[in-house]
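Observation: inputs received (chain + magnesium ion).
Thought: call the complex predictor directly.
Action: predict_structure
Action Input:
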Amino acid sequence: MATMAAGQCAIHPGRIEVITGPMFSGKSEELIRRLKRAQIAKRRVACFKPDLDVRYHRTAIASHSAQTLDALTVANMEELKSVLMPMVDAVEVVGIDEAQFFDATLISLSNELVQLGKRIIIAGLDTTFTGEPFAPMPELLAIADEVVKLSAVCMQCGAPAVHTQRLGSSQSLVLVGAAGVYEARCRACFRPWADEHGSEQMELPVAAADRC
Ligand code: ADP
Ligand code: MG
Ligand code: ZN
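Observation:
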């Protein structure tokens, strides 16, 4: 019977990768790129997104540059687990977009999945439109093997943008995909509580057919 040498691991370790940054920084593009490469490598991929994000598609994740990848839309972490766990043995790579809209259960699930040897690739906003850390992203960044922090282009001055500016007066934390509601801003141009209008930011098309 084979015995394990000192320091040898019982299972092949998994990996947690987190892709973060403001809106329009290319998080979904990078997530899609990594998942497509995993599929080219014949890895079995499952991708999830919260159903708050109804831009473009319900059955795919999508970037602002219109790249897509098949995904399962779930209402919350409970539904995500109830879909993923029965098929977890058949899945090698788990992708999650818009992770900031899931609750803290995503942290324990990520720890559980990485123990099972899975590769988990998570994309999500690091901060809210007021510049505060957007839970559960801070914890996910802390437990990640790899963190990629992307910047967008400031729509006011063209500098690298680290903030998501909310335009208009709504103070609701969750206001997804409405055209002209957000733009990327650098630190100098960011106005957390401003009531501004007239953004040049690329508008987000909301397809009526994808909303039902
Ligand atoms: P995220 O998921 O971070 O919101 P996406 O991957 O959906 O970003 O979209 C990134 C794409 O958005 C860019 O490649 C570019 O085509 C487009 N884009 C629109 N506005 C901006 C901006 N202000 N800065 C950078 N890219 C932008
Ligand atoms: Mg995105
Ligand atoms: Zn700026």
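Thought: report the result.
Final Answer: The radius of gyration is 18 Å. Residues 154, 156-157, 159, 185-186, 188-189 surround zinc ion (ligand 3) (CB under 6 Å).
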